[in-house]
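Appendix B, Record 12. Input sequence as logged:
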Amino acid sequence: MNDSGEPYEKTFAALPPAPGRAFARTWWGQAWLRALEESALDGDQVRHGRRVARSGAVGAVSVRPGGLTAVVRDRDGTAHRTDVLVQEFSPAEWDRLLGLAAAESGYIAALLDREVPPELAQDAAAAGVELLPGIGDFDPRCDCGEWDHCPHTAALCHQVARLLDQDPFVLLLLRGRGERELLDGLEARSAANARARTPDGGAPSDPGVPAEQAYAAARDGLPALPPRPDLPPAAGQPPALDTEDEPGGLDVDAVEFLARAAATEAFRLLAQALAPGHADRPAPAPLTRAEDAVRLTHEADDVRVRSRLAAATGRSRADMERAVLAWDFGGAPGLAALEDDWTPDRAALARARAALAAALDDGEAGAQAPVLRRVRARWTQTGAGRQIRLGREGRWWPYRRGEGRWIPAGPSAPDPASALEAAGPPG
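Logged structural output:
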């Protein structure tokens, strides 16, 4: 026991199986699992351990300063004594951590609410105290004979992530101090800080300076901004999901596709943000749900994913393929040219007629000008299977007749003659 009479070791009853459940919801629980994944030399052992933990094969977990212990059973019922050791904090490290936590009343309130403020972890790391484990901080021990992480130690770590979600003081006990001892230390530090700020219970001895004055002084002494980061060579690869025990009702392939698509889109947006002149260009309009579904279908290789996206937007597979082709030629404006059957106002129609007249007059000598029939913002060449469409942005989009439908035939052009030529020869 410690000086406050609190036992140095706590035992948590075995948790029930967790099929289809994420092992960590909190950021600190997720950081714990990242440390496991980064420490293990064999990722297959980590995935195997996750399945073992899901099955409920991890027994009661004993937590003490510097270590975890549990009995983990194989499928055949063989029991293994499993330990994972974690480095304890030194007295100096505890002193720095308590000083940081006591200096902010919000930190103490969060800890009492079973929350770990990310700012506390960041401040502690800056002071040389790594609250959360990192690469190589786990020392696995198991009587199965593995010298690195085995499925049993990995299962124990996954189970502890569930415990950390419920009670972050589990992590602090591992680092060397129990909840009561820690809170007593914080209370003593807080009281000492309060006495230092208000001697004899009076007003603070240092009234400080007005906020505007402090800001002006800080602004004048601010260092130059760091150089802009370079664009990575490609979008990152999101982690693969555990598909051994697929959760009911969840399409793992679809979720992994969405993660990859999000990474690709983030890379594209970052490339735009780092491009010269980005700040001077207007921000594009956000995509509608239907537009985003087409964008995602454009990136999807899996037929099932493409079919689900088509159904979600009320399109047939053929209609979705046409929409994807339009997106390929021109993004959201290209899709609008396909689906937005709009009527130009008088000014826009006058400009369109002038552009058409100029295009037809510029034809080769002796060549018969094409006859175009207009319906709203679409001009169709009679008997030629060609059509041009005027987009709301003022550009012209080529279309060609095929299989009883008008099919996008290329990217937009600034004038109707170029668009008509891009639609291909009459036929």
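The mean pLDDT is 84.
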